[in-house]
UniProtKB/TrEMBL annotation:
Protein name: Radial spoke head 14 homolog
Organism: Taeniopygia guttata
Organism superkingdom: Eukaryota
Gene name linked to the record: RSPH14
Gene Ontology cellular component annotations, sorted alphabetically: radial spoke
Length: 444
């Protein structure tokens, strides 16, 4: 079904002419001065020019160093809607770069953006939620804090996001290496004592080892206690930054009133945040809201709502709430959805929710086995792996095992699946289905 799109075009009475850039290194400082101008048109033109410049990560780094974020935070509450629109657009483009996301979190922009959740202009709200969505994807890392003595301790402990390919990995790791070199350079009087820790990277692209060796050459090992590490380091969270700003309750509330396009962004933000901590969302009534969204006409919203429920169900208290709100029967009905992405998300959510006995009983009552077997039988189904694991959980119930014994051949065919994960899951499922109690009483 076609949905109206939020327009990013400026009002017809606004002069879109960009500000004339100064030459060379004077360009960004001049734009920063113009952003603080008392003349509205000057501010608008400066923002138009800045929108083009911040596509370059080098310009983003320079802009942060020059204090642009303080100027942009001030403009977020400007009375002119065009200024607010272009300011949020600049920040959303900066959030596309790792250095930009880190700068936004450090400068406290998240709290400033919270005031735009009720902005009357749709595009301002959309840009705001795009920023939240990007920041929530940022992995947690430990940044630098200088001590009172000349020694400089650096702890870098990062969990990399999913690496899509060698080029992305190369860019990410080279950024880390440059950041490390910059921090080493702060002590010109002598070699700094540094601790450089880099977790083993789950990668096959071959570049991680080179940067790890380079880090070892640059660093000097230091024996410090866990208490010292906490004192010498500063945690800069991604999703945690959104959680600390107290945005989860208002985001859950906005799910009920926002436009569909913005709801998709909110669901993306929630899925990353609730992976970390779920209590605030549960207290705000997130599960009933998400249950309602499972019946939304938009495929993207249904799929993302099921994925958020997956993240909620990965927590013990989340599993209890999902069962309490009777979400499992709705998820079972989505197994027959015509869209593959909805099937994948719903089977994933069921897989986590059915870990509890209450969840398995609810799924049996909703007759989840037939649609799950259908997904397992389809060799091209993207939800095949999740469906096998979900059926394995149901096979732990006597009635579930008895039903699945008649479909053992379906799992046997999965052993020929090209995916090793599917093969392993099928082997485990067959083992659970074939299990019989060792006591004299035969339950079958």
């Amino acid at each position: 079904m076609a949905q109206p799109r939020i327009s990013a075009y400026l009002p017809p009475d606004i002069d879109p002419t960009k500000a004339a850039l100064a030459f060379g290194r004077r360009a960004l400082p001049k734009l920063n001065e113009e952003l603080q101008s008392a003349e509205l048109l000057t501010q608008q033109r400066a923002l138009m020019a800045l929108c083009d410049l911040v596509h370059d990560p080098e310009k983003v780094y320079q802009a942060i160093a020059l204090g642009f974020l303080a100027s942009l935070k001030t403009l977020l509450v400007h009375q002119d809607q065009t200024v607010r629109q272009k300011t949020t657009e600049v920040l959303s483009i900066m959030a596309l770069h790792s250095i930009g996301r880190e700068g936004l979190i450090r400068s406290g922009v998240i709290s400033a953006l919270a005031g735009l959740l009720d902005d009357p202009v749709d595009i301002c709200r959309k840009n705001t939620h795009q920023i939240f969505d990007m920041l929530a994807k940022l992995p947690e890392g430990l940044q630098v804090k200088a001590t009172a003595v000349n020694d400089f301790h650096l702890l870098y402990d990062s969990t990399l996001p999913r690496i899509a390919g060698a080029q992305e990995e190369e860019f990410y790791l080279s950024s880390l290496s440059l950041a490390f070199r910059a921090q080493v350079a702060v002590n010109p009087t002598g070699p700094p004592r540094c601790l450089f820790l880099l977790r083993a990277l789950p990668t096959s692209h071959g570049t991680a080892g080179r940067y790890r060796r380079e880090g070892c050459r640059l660093a000097h090992s230091v024996d410090v206690s866990q208490k010292d590490l906490q004192r010498l380091s500063v945690l800069v969270p991604g999703a945690g930054g959104v959680l600390q700003a107290g945005l989860i309750p208002p985001l859950v509330l906005k799910m009920q009133t926002e436009l569909d396009e913005i709801q998709e962004l909110i669901l993306g933000t929630l899925s990353n945040c609730l992976r970390v901590e779920v209590s605030e969302a549960l207290a705000a009534g997130a599960v009933p809201v998400l249950k309602e969204k499972l019946s939304h006409p938009s495929t993207a919203i249904r799929s993302k709502a099921a994925w958020v429920l997956l993240e909620i169900s990965s927590h013990a208290e989340g599993k209890i709430e999902v069962c309490k709100e009777e979400v499992i029967p709705v998820l079972v009905s989505l197994l027959e959805d015509t869209q593959p992405e909805v099937q994948v998300s719903s089977t994933g959510a069921l897989m986590f929710a059915l870990v509890t006995p209450q969840g398995r009983s609810s799924a049996m009552g909703a007759e989840a086995i037939p649609p799950l077997l259908t997904l397992v039988a389809e060799e091209t189904s993207k939800a095949r792996l999740n469906a096998i694991k979900t059926l394995t959980l149901l096979a732990e119930l006597p009635e579930g095992r008895q039903t699945l014994l008649d479909h053992r051949d379906t799992f046997q065919r999965c052993l020929d699946d090209p995916s090793e994960a599917v093969q392993r899951a099928a082997e485990i499922a067959i083992t659970v289905i074939d299990w019989k109690p060792s006591c004299s009483r035969d339950l079958f």
